[in-house]
């Protein structure tokens, strides 16, 4: 088993366990639960097969739906994020992404943070729209998207700073 595959498997299992057993138990201010598991989708290698990536993102979402009883909202949000991820990568990284020589975890923290913000907003907007599924609650949906998104970005940034490999100059 090569190191990339092993890293991806460990990241998948580790983030899933962290989300289910620790972060889902947090209810900051009664409604804020950070969703750090989407770091798996953000950090997934660029050069891998797109269809397998979509399947893995769906599997991640469906596993969370099983544990959280959210009826497919995580799966839909993860699949949407996996689908639009190439657009975000092209927007944030430009030519590096097009040449497929990009290692997302090794990029500068500002670009990684921009990619995280775009991904978190997209994921959370889809997720909370499906969970609430009521147009009269649009302000509440946006409030949840913003507040949970900020918490997710803060905790995800903390993880990225801690686990980001040091670049040799």
TrEMBL record:
UniProtKB keywords: Membrane, Transmembrane, Transmembrane helix
Transmembrane feature ranges: 5-22, 28-44, 51-67, 73-92, 112-132, 144-163
Top-rank taxon, per record: Bacteria
Protein's name in the database: Rod shape-determining protein MreD
């Amino acid at each position: 088993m090569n190191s990339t595959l092993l890293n991806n498997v460990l990241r998948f299992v580790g983030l899933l366990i962290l989300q289910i057993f620790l972060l889902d138990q947090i209810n900051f201010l009664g409604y804020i639960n950070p969703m750090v598991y989407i770091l798996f989708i953000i950090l997934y290698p660029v050069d891998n097969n797109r269809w397998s990536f979509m399947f893995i993102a769906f599997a991640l979402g469906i596993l969370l739906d099983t544990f959280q009883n959210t009826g497919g909202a995580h799966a839909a949000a993860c699949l949407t994020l996996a689908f639009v991820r190439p657009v975000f990568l092209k927007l944030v990284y430009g030519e590096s992404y097009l040449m497929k020589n990009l290692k997302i975890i090794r990029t500068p923290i500002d670009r990684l943070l921009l990619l995280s913000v775009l991904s978190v907003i997209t994921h959370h907007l889809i997720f909370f729209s499906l969970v609430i599924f009521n147009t009269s609650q649009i302000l509440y949906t946006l409030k949840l998207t913003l507040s949970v998104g900020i918490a997710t970005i803060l905790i995800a940034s903390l993880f990225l700073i801690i686990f980001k490999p040091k670049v040799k100059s």
